[in-house]
Amino acid sequence: MAVPHLQEFPSADTLEHLFAAHLSAVCRRTATALEACGYRDLLVHSGSLRPLFQDDRTHPFEVNAPFKVWTPLSDVPDCFVHFVPDRPPRLLFHRPTDYWYKPAPLPQAYWTDRFEIVPCSDLQGARAALPEDLSHTAYLGEDFGGLAGWAGLALNPPRLIRHLDYHRAVKTPYELACLRAANRLGARGHRAAARVFTAGGSTFDIELAFLAACGQREQELPYNPIIALNENGAVLHYQMLEREVPPARRSLLIDAGAEFAGYASDITRTYAHETGEFADLIGRMDTLQQTLCAQVKAGIDWREVHLRAHRLLAALLADADLLTCSAEEAIDSQVTTVFLPHGVGHLLGLQVHDAGGFMRAPEEGDIERPESHPYLRLTRVLEPGFVVTMEPGLYFIDTLLAAARADRRRRLIRWSRIESLRPYGGIRIEDDLAVTATGCENLTREAFNAENAP
Ligand code: GLY
Ligand code: MN
Ligand code: MN
Q1: What single DSSP character describes residue 346?
Q2: Residue of minimum CA distance from atom 5 in ligand 1
Q3: Which of 239, 270, 352 to mutate for ligand 1's pocket (most ligand atoms within 8 Å of CB)?
Q4: CA 350, CA 46: separation in Å to the nearest integer?
Q5: What DSSP string describes 172-196?
Q6: Which of 123, 222, 425, 440 has the smallest CB count inside 10 Å?
Q7: Around 105, how many Cα atoms within 13 Å sit in the side-chain half-sphere?
Q8: In this predicted structure, what is the pLDDT of residue 453?
Q9: Are residues 109 and 241 in the same domain?
Q10: From atom 4 of ligand 1, which residue's Cα is the shortest distance away?
Q11: Please, where are the H alpha helices in 38-172?
Q12: Could you tell me if 120 and 179 lie in one domain?
């Protein structure tokens, strides 16, 4: 993995120092999990190239998240990390003999000294580098055909996965440094995207500007950017990339993040093209989002943050004259879920929706979502080191509005106001927060501020 070409980012020396402590922590917690679940060692696959149907090409390679916790190597299929407690981890590095494609060079970076790196030209070579008896080995990754003869491997043991995922929520200082850098890259992309919106570009132009400013290809991003002009902002994961510029330019909702060393940023901003009622609503939502951010600290139950977001949204809707009822009645009648039909945030890290959001403890089952809030992805009590997104929204979604119009909520919503705002789509403002004992560090706002600095 190339460390991005940006001087403000952690130096290779800093990364080397932080990575050493990170890897020790990963080794320690993995050893504990293996022991708790009765395994001797762990084998993690980087992932496979998947062929396209009736073609000799493949889908773009996507590395497996459990592999990335060990190494930032994100672009080499069919590698394995093999970990035996109390020994340095080994990287079985796939280097085929090939003249169609260039085999990846053996990595040499801030993290490589911590591994014993074993080049393997094929799967047989990898198998030969592993213990003969795999009957106490846990394996994480796809069950691909090549494993057929590897007798005894325990494939993706659910209990072990719970132990590993649970602890992944607390980030090491190395991971926090990577998440800060991912936010710097993402903020840089957002600034460029906003400039193209202001200049009148298409959705496609905005995406290209984002990618160029981040220095990343689409497949290197943690998720496909959501770039929605005007009423498209009401589609939560809008995925079209129109080349044409729409006849009128009213609003942009852009949800896009970058990746650094395998760690994701997840950032949304909403812009109005002109001052007016939609711009005012964005200002109100920004204040609401900042109010929620200010309440985040270790010990807070995330379900309560989500419910608080709905209470604040109810007050905002009433205040902005979008309701004919009180804020309390809007909550009691589930009017706010028409306007905010997704969770207020989720864990972030190696995956944009990181694993382990529901666990009470590895061996103690899951924590239920609040009733009537089925899309919340995080129900845990926050701990120092968690990284979460804070992403309240307010959307004018035709299908949800139609459902509300057809039931008892019809009389609670001021429909004339909705009609005038529908052409703007919706608003989401999303920052990434690193939780501390007393509050949180807003990785995204700090990144935007740093990008603004002279
Ligand atoms: N970008 C997807 C999300 O915000 O959850
Ligand atoms: Mn998100
Ligand atoms: Mn997002």
Answers
A1: -
A2: 353
A3: 352
A4: 13
A5: PHHHHHHHHHHHHHHHHHHHHHHHH
A6: 123
A7: 5
A8: 73
A9: no
A10: 266
A11: 65-68, 123-128, 158-168
A12: no
CA distances from residue 179 to 1, 20, 330, 358 in whole angstroms, order as listed = 16, 17, 37, 22
Task: Please tell me the distance from the alpha carbon of residue 234 to that of residue 347, in angstroms, as a whole number.
Answer: 23
Q: Is residue 160 part of a domain?
A: yes
Asked whether residue 422 is assigned to any structural domain, the reply reads yes
The token pair that represents 267 in the structure block: 């950032």
| CA 165/CA 362 separation, integer angstroms | 8
- CATH (domain of 121): 3.40.350.10
Residue 14 sits in the same domain as residue 67: yes
The predicted structure's pLDDT at residue 9: 85
Q: Is 175 in the pocket of ligand 1 (CB under 6 A)?
A: no
Instruction: Point out the residues of the chain with pLDDT beneath 50.
Output: 1-4
Instruction: Report yes or no: 118 and 74 within 8 Å, Cβ to Cβ.
Output: no
Residues 95 and 241 placed together within one structural domain of the fold: no
The structure tokens listed for 130 are 């592993």
Close Cβ partners of 231 (under 8 Å, ≥ 6 residues apart): 396, 422, 423, 424, 425
- State how many domains the chain has: 2
Q: What's the rounded Cα separation, in Å, for the pair 107 and 113?
A: 10
Establish whether residue 223 lines the binding site of ligand 1, counting it when its CB lies within 6 angstroms of any ligand atom: yes
Q: What integer pLDDT is reported at residue 6 of this predicted model?
A: 55
Which residue, 116, 136, 168, sits at the end of a domain? 168
Q: What's the CA gap between 302 and 436, in Å, rounded?
A: 14
Same structural domain, 224 and 330: yes
Tokens for 119, please give them.
Answer: 């080049």
Residue 402 located in a structural domain: yes
Q: What was the pLDDT predicted at 425?
A: 98
Tokens of 79: 């590698």
Residue 217 and residue 336 in one domain: yes
* Nearest partner of 261 among 218, 216, 224, 226, judged by Cα: 216
Please tell me the distance between residue 259's alpha carbon and the centre of ligand 1 in angstroms: 14
| Pair 102, 158 in one domain | yes
The boundaries of the domain holding residue 126 are 6-168
pLDDT of residue 249: 96
12-28: burial string, b at 16+ Cβ within 10 Å, e else: eeebbebbeebbebbbe
Task: Mark which of 108, 136, 168 sits at the end of a domain.
Answer: 168
Distance 391 CA to ligand 2 centre (A): 6
Candidate from 289, 351, 391 with most ligand 1 atoms within 8 A of CB, to mutate: 391
Ligand 1 atom closest to the CA of 430, numbered from 1: 4
**Are 109 and 178 found together in one domain?**
no
State the CATH number of the domain containing residue 326: 3.90.230.10
Pairing of the two strands 137-140 and 41-45: parallel
